[in-house]
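Example record

One chain of 427 residues, shown exactly as stored in the release files.
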Amino acid sequence: MRGFRGVTGAVMALMLAVVAACAGVGARDGGTGPSRSSGPGAPRPEVSGPTGPPGEGGRGGAAGAPPRIPSAEGLPGWSHSPGFAADGSGFALLADCVQNAGAPESGFCRQPVAVLDRGAKGWVLRRSPLPETAPMDGVSADLKVLGPGRALIEEGGASPETGRAWFTRDGGRTWRRVDTRTSGTTPVIPAGAVLTTDCAEPSSPSSGPLARDECARERLVVIDPEDGRRRALAQGPPIGPGPRPAGVAEPDGSWWVSGTDPLSGRAAVAVSRDRGRSWSIGQLPSPTTAPGWYTAVAVGQDAVYAAEMGELKGGNPVKNPMRALHRSLDGGRTWERMWTTGPVHEPRTLQGLPVPGPGGRVLITAEDREFVSVDGGRSFRPSGEGTGFIRRTPLGLLRSGSACGYAISVDGERWSTFALACASDQR
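Predicted C-alpha cells for this chain:
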C-alpha cells in the first residue's frame, strides 16, 4: 500500500483496531563506530489540566513543559493518524461506522476530519474528501500534517499510478486533489515538509504496484507543504538501496535516515543539518552483520539514541523486535552500543521511538510495558507505566495509547494527556 510500506507492527495493530471497530468487533556491551561525510477500547484516560500560559506560536508553557492539547471525547467514531504542526494546530482522521443489526455488510463508514486551529480552545469537525466505505473494508487512509493548517490525506491500498490524495492549506475547510506521483526535484527540505521514499528502480520492469521488498532501489522524497506534491530530494545520502527516513525533523533541526553502510553493509544512520543539502554517515556498532529492518533515531538534550530494529535469535518471537540500542554524545559522529537484546533480556521490543530524557534517562515503550534507564541505556527497569506507540511531530513526541488516549511531551519526561473520539467506548 502506498504510504504504508515498512509500517511497524504497532501501527498495523492500530489500523486493525480501527478496522475491528468499524466491523463491530467490539546483555550489555559496547563499541564505537566510525563516521564519514558525503557531499552535496481501553478506559478513558485522565486528561491533564493546563500546564501554564501558552508559549509563543504554540501551546507550551515554560521551557520543556508539555503543550496543552484540548480533549474532544465526543467526536464520532475512532481517531487515527493524529498530527500537529509546530504552532500547536493539528488534524486527526476519524472512522465513524454505522451498521444494521444482523447485517454488518449493509452499513457504512464515514471518514471526517477533526481540526484544531491555532489558538483554538477545541477541535472542530470538518468533512474530508474521503468517500464512504463498507464496514468490512476497514479504514486505511493516512493523514500527514505539512505545517500550520496544512495536511495531506491519502487513500490506502492504491499504487502511485492510481492512488488518490487531497491537500488542504486552510485547516480542512477546502481540499484539492493532488497527483500522488513524484514529479521534479528539490534541493532542500522545506519547513513543514514530510520526508518519505518512493521506488526509483523496480526489481523488474513488470513489477506493477510495488511493495517495499519489490523495489531494487528507493530514493528520498519530500512532500512539499506548498502544494502537497512529491518531489525527489536532489542530494540523498549513500546509505544503501532501502533508506528509511524519519518523517519530520528533530528538535535541533536535524534530519535522520537509516540504512546500511555501503562499504561494510552494516547498519548505519545519516544526518543532515542543512535541510538535506549534505549528509554525514555514521556506522553503528551492531551486534550482528545480518541485515536488520531499520533504525529509529531520537535526539535528546544530552544525547542521540538509535534503536536498531530486526529479528532476534533465541527466546520467544516478538513483534517489533529491537536488537540493540546505541548512543552518541557527539551528534552522531561516533556511537556506543549501550544495550544488546538477548533471548530473555528486557526490553526486547520497541514501539516507535526511544524517548531521550535529561541526565542519561531514556524510555523504551515495549509491547507490554515501558522500561526506563537512568544510565544512558546500560540498564533498564520496568517503569510501572502503560505503553503505546511513540512518534515525533513538530510539536513534540506523540504517544498513542488506548483507543482514544494520547499524550505529548517536549522533554521526554513530562507528558500532557488528552483524549479524542471516546464516544465509541460507550457503544
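Notes: The two ends are 31 Å apart (CA to CA).
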